[in-house]
Amino acid sequence: MSWLDEHARSVYSQNGEDGIIAHIFSVIGHESHLFIEFGFSVPECNSWRLVEEEGFGGLFIDKHPLAVTWADNVRMIQRHLTVENIEDVLSSMPVKIDLLSIDVDGNDYWLWKAIERTSPRLVVIEFNKALGPDVSVTIPYDPDFSWACGSYFGASLRALARLGKRKGFKLIGCEPVGVNAFFLRDDIDGFDKVDPSDAFAWGPCGWDGLRELPWVEV
């Protein structure tokens, strides 16, 4: 069980992320009051509570059109994000933001890797729990990848932890169900780094049945 479990609470989030994010910011504070979130549904997302309760502004990005009334300080862009276009799409936002949330059920690893200009303080990113805590793999990059509702998608928690380390972020925990991981920028105090095996929400692991599918070790 992750130490973050006791703070889990959902207003709009899927698995308690709202409460966990609120707790993290209660420790590290806010700076920009800005977020970027891509791959989301309405009302299920990780940033909207911040808009309603803490005055955040920011940017939602999704490939599907959404008929939603946003707050004045929130924009929505309909775009299919790829490694090739993500830096251009994010260029409309300030470099320094408080929160980046990534959940695209596919190229999550590759999109985070491709982001260089934006400097978030906290990153929330989906991982593939079926891969377990030990292997460091992701799907091969395919700009046209579309999730088929099975267990073939995304990246393992350890793969994201290694990527985070290279980008200057430390893994600080996961939410109770084991869908999203939380990464804090290395220069921010308040939380200790944890190993994927300690942060992992244990449950059925399907790696043995998935290992023959195309994966990239990272």
Polypeptide structure, described:
By secondary structure, the chain is of the alpha/beta class. It has helices at 17-28, 48-54, 86-90, 108-114, 157-167, 196-199, 207-210, and strands at residues 34-38, 57-62, 74-78, 96-102, 119-126, 137-138, 169-174, 180-185, 216-217. 23% of the residues lie in helices and 22% in strands. The longest helix is centred in the first third of the chain and has 12 residues, at 17-28. β4 (96-102), α4 and β5 form a beta-alpha-beta unit. The strands form two sheets. A seven-stranded mixed β-sheet has the order 3-2-1-4-5-8-7. It has a two-stranded antiparallel sheet with strand order 6-9. The protein starts with 16 loop residues before the first helix and ends with a strand. The protein contains seven helices and nine strands. It has one domain (3-217): 3-Layer(aba) Sandwich (Rossmann fold).
What fraction of the residues are assigned to beta strands by DSSP?
15-25%
Radius of gyration computed on alpha carbons = 16 Å
CATH class: Alpha Beta
Order of helices and strands: HEHEEHEHEEHEEHHE
Strand order across the largest sheet: 3-2-1-4-5-8-7
In CATH, the architecture is 3-Layer(aba) Sandwich
Ends apart, CA distance between termini: 26 Å
